[in-house]
From TrEMBL:
Gene of this entry: cobA
Keyword S-adenosyl-L-methionine among UniProt keywords: yes
Tetrapyrrole methylase domain span: 5-216
Protein name listed in UniProt: uroporphyrinogen-III C-methyltransferase
Source organism: Candidatus Blautia faecigallinarum
Class of enzymatic activity (EC top level): transferase
GO molecular function, one term: uroporphyrinogen-III synthase activity
Pfam families, per the entry: HEM4 (PF02602), TP_methylase (PF00590)
Protein family (similarity comment): Belongs to the precorrin methyltransferase family.
Organism superkingdom: Bacteria
Alphabetized InterPro entries for the sequence: 4pyrrol_Mease, 4pyrrol_Methylase_sf, 4pyrrol_syn_uPrphyn_synt_sf, 4pyrrol_synth_uPrphyn_synth, 4pyrrole_Mease_sub1, 4pyrrole_Mease_sub2, CobA/CysG_C, Siro_Cobalamin_biosynth
BP terms from Gene Ontology: methylation; siroheme biosynthetic process
Keyword flag S-adenosyl-L-methionine: yes
């Protein structure tokens, strides 16, 4: 094995959309990922499943691993020849001790790269409608760490800061809010100067308290503020109400868990984020093609004898065409066969292969598909259904009753897997998650498998259709169902759920 390499990546302030393109590209190829608790959960869920994950979480006052040990981990993993990613919240070089992590690597001649991150002192005010500079108010910005060593006075020249007349941003200073304001006021700051404390910025839990240098401490104590938070002092804070935009989004402040098959690029997630939701994508199911595809190959050999080809999921569709490719079987061999799709997602997938479905039921589920198809089938016709191992048996029964000869062929199976970086159960129990969004019955099962100790009656479930809702009901979840079984309708459902809650 050759020499490894280390990438120090800034993961930004929390919102997955603020992770850089370069950061994402490097993370996808990582073999070892060293991360801490300040990295946004959305980004943690993007760590490749094949990578080894090492948690070195730091939270004020209880450090899991001392800095020296983190430095040694990076060195030893790189020396073993791995591609090592050190994921850090914000930017690695802004109070992130990135410089310290490089000293040892530089000394030992280990190659490394720095991938800057979007930094919270600029991004968090922006998500709260506060421009850190504005021509009418200030001509400088100062970023100060609010962290002081135990039992020591601040090593901050408050007088010099006040004299800059610039915007002041203090990081990691929640517990020190009083000391910081006292330092500024004693150094001559006008007690009427606008000031704000911004908590959990760029996530659904973001909160801002805007007051003045003289009143911010009691205001924060009255409203309660949770770390991580930043303190902003300066005239620009007065613009927050006017320029606020995040709260205007229909799903702002809403945190959603989306459970889906690992390989599906999620349009649902993208649409929910567009509406302002914080989306935690936790793939709880993985679909794997079966090792032995001989039953499918046998059917493909005599495909000319089949009248109908029926697809019940996008995955089943994808695997069918993959297997045809593997055999180098030409698409024209499907000839005049008629094709049925269970719903919108499956129909789209077929379209990608240049096939327009002849039949799609009004309601997107197995029973409705069987009903619709049974009216079109003549006795003795053959129907091929390549699909998941344990599919809806009713579909086959309905078609057989209509006189069809059905070849129900399993082509893939579903495997359940839990996230190893995010404690989903803890998130639900702490009340951090507003709802779970399910796009199929198997994702509901996957979710339940990966949260074994969770009281599922506490879960609010937004379900795409009948079978998905029935499955969620079986586990006692509080269920809602989309009007139509489409992603758009499902997103509308989540908006309606949020509206109903705000009215309560």
């Amino acid at each position: 094995m050759g020499m490894g390499k280390v990438w120090l990546i800034g993961a930004g302030p929390g919102d997955i959309g603020l992770f850089t393109i370069k950061g994402k590209e490097v993370l996808e190829k990582a073999e070892v990922v060293v991360y801490d608790s300040l990295v946004g959960q959305g980004i943690l869920s993007q760590i490749p499943s094949s990578a080894r994950k090492i948690f070195v979480g730091k939270r004020a006052s209880h450090h899991t691993k001392p800095q020296e040990e983190i430095n040694r981990i990076l060195l030893s993993e790189a020396e073993k020849g791995f591609r090592v990613v050190r994921l850090k919240g914000g930017d690695p070089f802004l109070f992130g001790r990135g410089g310290e992590e490089l000293e040892l690597l530089a000394e030992k001649g280990i190659p490394y790269e720095i991938v800057p991150g979007i930094t919270s002192p600029i991004a968090v005010p922006a998500y709260n409608g506060i421009p850190v500079t504005h021509r009418d108010f200030c001509s400088s910005l100062h970023i100060i760490t609010g962290h002081k060593r135990a039992g020591q006075e601040y090593d901050i020249n408050f007088k010099a800061l006040v004299e800059t007349k610039g915007t002041l941003v203090f990081l990691m200073g929640v517990s020190a809010l009083g000391d910081i304001l006292k330092g500024l006021l004693e150094a001559g700051m006008d007690p009427e100067m606008p000031a704000a404390v911004l908590s959990k910025g760029t996530t659904a839990a973001q909160k801002r308290i805007v007051a003045t240098a003289g009143t911010l401490e009691e205001e924060a104590a009255r409203q309660g503020i949770k770390a991580p938070a930043i303190i902003v002092v300066g005239k620009v804070c007065a613009l927050a109400e006017r320029f606020a935009w995040y709260e205007q989004l229909p799903l702002s402040g809403y945190k959603v868990v989306l459970t889906r098959p690992r390989h599906l690029i999620s349009r649902t997630g993208a649409l929910l984020r567009e509406k302002g939701a914080e989306v935690l994508e936790l793939p709880a199911i993985r679909t794997v093609p079966l090792e032995d595809q001989s039953p499918l190959y046998h059917a493909l050999d005599e495909i000319g004898t089949y009248s109908w080809l029926v697809f019940t999921s996008p995955t089943g569709t994808e695997i069918f065409f993959d297997e045809m490719k593997k055999r180098e079987q030409d698409i024209r061999s499907l000839g005049k066969i008629k094709v049925a799709a269970i719903g919108e997602g499956t129909r789209k997938k077929l379209k990608e292969h240049g096939i327009y479905a002849d039949l799609m039921p009004e309601t997107y589920d197995g029973d409705s598909l069987g009903e619709a198809l049974s009216h079109q089938i003549k006795p003795g016709q053959r129907v091929l259904i390549p699909r998941a191992e344990k599919g809806n048996q009713n579909l086959t029964a309905i078609l057989t009753a209509a006189g069809a000869e059905v070849a129900d062929i399993p082509t893939y199976r579903t495997i359940y897997e839990a996230s190893d970086v995010i404690d989903e159960q803890k998130e639900f129990e702490a009340g951090n998650i507003d709802c779970a969004v399910f796009t199929s019955a198997s994702t509901v099962r996957g979710f339940v498998e990966s949260t074994p100790g969770l009281d599922h009656t506490k879960v609010k479930a937004a379900c795409i259709g009948k079978q998905t809702k029935a499955q969620a009901d079986q586990y006692g979840m509080q269920t809602w169902m989309a009007e139509k079984a489409t992603i758009e309708s499902l997103i509308q459902l989540v908006e309606d759920m949020k509206k109903a809650e705000t009215r309560e």
